[in-house]
Structure formats: C-alpha cells, structure tokens
Write a sequence for this structure.
C-alpha cells in the first residue's frame, strides 16, 4: 500500500487543473488488467476521477514522457514523480531535454512497486483483479472464490528491494516527506558476477542475452535514451530493429545500449522492468556505475542539475585502461 | 594431415598525429612488426567509438589495439583523456561479459617511438595468438 492515496492525488490534480496552474496531467491509468498500468494524459476533472490510478503497479518513470509532452501541450503539465523518477528528471534537465517552466512537478512518496511476476508466482495465472488499498494486496483469480491475500513486501520488484534513495531531488510541491538516500546493497549482484570466472560470466550472459528479442523496450523506456535518432535505427548499421540474428548482435546491442547511457543512467531500473524476457539489464548499467564510482569517485547521475558525468570529464592522472583490472582476479 | 597455423587478425586504430607517424617511423627504420596487424588511421584516438571495436571483432578481428598520443600530448589537447576513461569502462564491461581481457588493449605511442610501436605490436600479436581465435565475439555470418 502506498502512503499517499489515489484519492489524494486525484484531488490534488483536480484542484491544480481548476485554478489554472496546469493545463494537463500526466498520470497512470488502468490497462487491460489491474496490473498493467499505463501512462495517460488527462485534461479534465471527469476523466481524472474516472481513469486516474495510483497503486503498487505504477512503475512507469514519467520523466522521459515530459520530453515529448512538453512540446505538444499548451501550458504547464502536472507530473507526479516518485523519488527515483526525480533523478531522471534532473538528468534530463541537465541535458536540456525539456523546458522546466512547462512542468509542475509534485513529489510523491513511494513504498516500492510490485513485480507482477512475483505475484503470479504466489497466486498463479488468471488474475482478474488486484486491490492494493488494504494492508495486504488482495489478488482475485478466476479459479478461486475468495481473493488471495499477498504481503506487498514479499512481491517488491528487484529494483525496489535495492532502492537507492527515497529522497526527492526535484519538485515544485511535495506530498509527504522529502525522504532520505538509502545505503542500499544494489551492487551486490554485480560483485557476485565479478567474483565468477570469465567462463562462468560468459555462460551467464550468453544465457541471459540469448533470450533478447530486440523489441527495444529497454531503450524506449529508458529515461536516459532520449536521442531523436537512435544509432540502432540506422538501416545501414546492420543492427536496426529486428530480432538478433546471432549471439554477436545481442551482445553488441546490450553493450552499446549500456555504454550510451553510462554516466547518465540514474539506475531507475526501468530497463529491467519493461523487459518482456526478464533479462537483468540493470546489472549492465550498475556495472558501469560501480566501475565509475570506483575509478573516478562517487557519482550519482541526476542528484543535482548541471553535474558533469565521469565520461564527459577527465583528470590528467586517471588510471590506464589496462589498470582497471588491477586487484581483480585474473583468468589464470 | 597438416594443421594450419593460426594467424590472428589484429586491428590497430592509430591516431594520425602520433601512433600512425610512429608506425611510419618503424617502417623507415626497417623495424619489423607482424604482418597480421592491420592499421586503421583515425584523426584522434577519441574518434574511436566503442562500436568500432565491437564491429572489428564482428568482422573477424581476433584482437583490437588502440594507439594514441601520450596523455598530455594530444593534438586536440584532451582527446586521449576521454579515450582513456571510455576504453577503461568498455574493457571492464567486456571482461564483465566474460570476453578475454587480453584481446583489447590501449597503448600510447608517440611519433618518435618507432621502436615502441614495433615492440608493442609484436607483443600484442603474440598475446592474441596464444589466446587463439576470437570465439566469444564472433559473427558467424561474417566468417568466410
């Protein structure tokens, strides 16, 4: 259950629409099922009261949507930002991707989002409705008479278990507390992989990446990937939209995708959330973040507007490319 | 049956201002370096996009070496400082995916270091030869 209720958010949106502060509201609405919440744009009170949703499945990071929406909408847009979304918000402002004047950001606390696959693992398939308003999540399936009560903390998404920060770093108005940065164990999984032998790592990634169907969802959902023309859309590149022809293309796509957001990735975990094949893509991003923290000093993308990422910066005494392996286990 | 000796294919990206001139000097001085090394001239070592390196592997390279001016000597003042960070991160990522870390290397070779160029290439070619064929980053469609 989230701290701020859906009703409170709707009331807030309605009042801001009524007094003319904003002209439209970027919010979530129900998709085909209760758990596939999709982003939507609301412009009047009736549609807000009818369609606006806020629950444990509102994972979508809205910062990226602002890039396109601020160009289309007249007047200001009201956007609700969870703590991790505010980092992406700042990062996009750093890159001058949208006009800050056209956005009215309301920070909302987040208790972590649920992973539907974990819910399905407990309740099975055939979920007809989910009620997230009680202490426990009430999951109704078509095979059972009574809803199954699921503890929300047991179905938290991986990115929320290792939440890096509940602090809002950008907002015009805040509902609830500002929150704090959390000392999370988000690099543990990366460290575990680093401790493996190269052969084991290769097998692990071959196994994970071979599931890739090149739907490009990771790229499309990523708030750091906002190029108008993407390198992977170039028809002459040989890696344009299509399923990977062989294992080289999978690796190439994922290495380059992660590299292109290195230093700008705020570790919001959208890539892994949207992946239909459940590839742990955030591990690639976290590997870059971990490396940059270790080699060039701690850096959190989006923590403040205007900060300079490690890869667009340098010092004269950086370590040599061959030296990054010093102190790590060698293959021998 | 005679087994064909493995000859690695090595792609060397050389910066126009230092390493390419260094290779030239090696030639002028009659210093040998392995014939498997194919040089691609780039305006600056920071011209090399990570995609170039992956692409070289795709098209059949067994090792990729990137040569540039010594840090501080870049013709464009700071290009090789960016290269250094970029390649450190890329190589670390390749290693993370289980690809042999000896297949990629960055060396700083100035225009006066013909002997170093020759030594570096000989050493790198021997390392790659010992590793054998590039299997982990190969594209079967590009194999002859």
């Amino acid at each position: 259950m989230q701290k701020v209720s859906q009703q409170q958010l709707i009331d807030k949106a309605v009042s801001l629409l009524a007094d003319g502060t904003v002209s439209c509201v970027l919010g979530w609405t129900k998709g085909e099922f209760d758990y596939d919440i999709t982003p939507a744009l609301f412009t009047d009170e009736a549609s807000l009261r009818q369609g606006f949703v806020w629950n444990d499945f509102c994972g979508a990071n809205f910062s990226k949507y602002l890039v396109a929406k601020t160009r289309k909408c007249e007047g200001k847009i009201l956007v609700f930002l969870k703590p991790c979304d505010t980092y992406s918000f700042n990062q996009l402002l750093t890159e001058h991707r949208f006009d800050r004047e056209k956005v009215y950001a309301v920070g909302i606390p987040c208790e972590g989002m649920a992973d539907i696959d974990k819910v399905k693992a407990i309740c099975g398939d055939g979920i007809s409705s989910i009620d997230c308003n009680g202490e426990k999540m009430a999951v109704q399936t078509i095979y059972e008479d009574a809803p199954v009560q699921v503890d929300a903390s047991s179905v938290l998404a991986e990115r929320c278990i290792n939440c890096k920060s509940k602090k809002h770093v950008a907002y015009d108005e805040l509902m609830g507390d500002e929150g704090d940065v959390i000392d999370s164990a988000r690099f543990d999984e990366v460290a575990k992989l680093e401790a493996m032998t190269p052969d084991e790592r290769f097998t692990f990634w071959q196994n994970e990446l071979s599931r890739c169907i090149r739907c490009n969802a990771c790229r499309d959902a990523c708030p750091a990937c906002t190029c108008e023309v993407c390198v992977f859309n170039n028809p002459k590149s040989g890696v344009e939209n299509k399923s990977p022809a062989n294992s080289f293309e999978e690796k190439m796509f994922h290495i380059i995708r992660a590299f292109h957001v290195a230093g700008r990735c705020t570790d919001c975990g959208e890539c892994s959330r949207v992946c239909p094949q459940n590839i742990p893509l955030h591990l690639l991003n976290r590997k870059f973040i971990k490396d940059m923290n270790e080699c060039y000093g701690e850096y959190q993308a989006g923590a403040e507007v205007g900060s300079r990422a490690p890869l667009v910066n340098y010092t004269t005494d950086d370590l040599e490319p061959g030296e990054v392996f010093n102190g790590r286990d060698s293959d021998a | 049956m005679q087994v064909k000796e493995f000859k690695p294919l090595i792609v060397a990206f050389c910066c126009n201002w230092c390493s390419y001139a260094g290779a030239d000097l090696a030639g002028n001085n009659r210093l040998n370096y392995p014939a498997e090394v194919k040089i691609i001239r780039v305006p600056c070592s920071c011209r090399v996009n990570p995609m170039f390196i992956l692409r070289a592997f795709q098209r059949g390279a067994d090792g990729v070496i990137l040569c540039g001016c010594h840090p501080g000597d870049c013709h464009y003042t700071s290009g090789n400082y960016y290269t250094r960070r970029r390649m450190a991160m890329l190589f670390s990522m390749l290693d993370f995916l289980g690809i042999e870390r000896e297949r990629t290397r960055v060396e700083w070779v100035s225009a006066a270091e013909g002997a170093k160029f020759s030594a570096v290439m000989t050493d790198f070619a021997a390392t790659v030869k010992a590793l054998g064929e590039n299997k982990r980053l190969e594209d079967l469609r590009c194999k002859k």
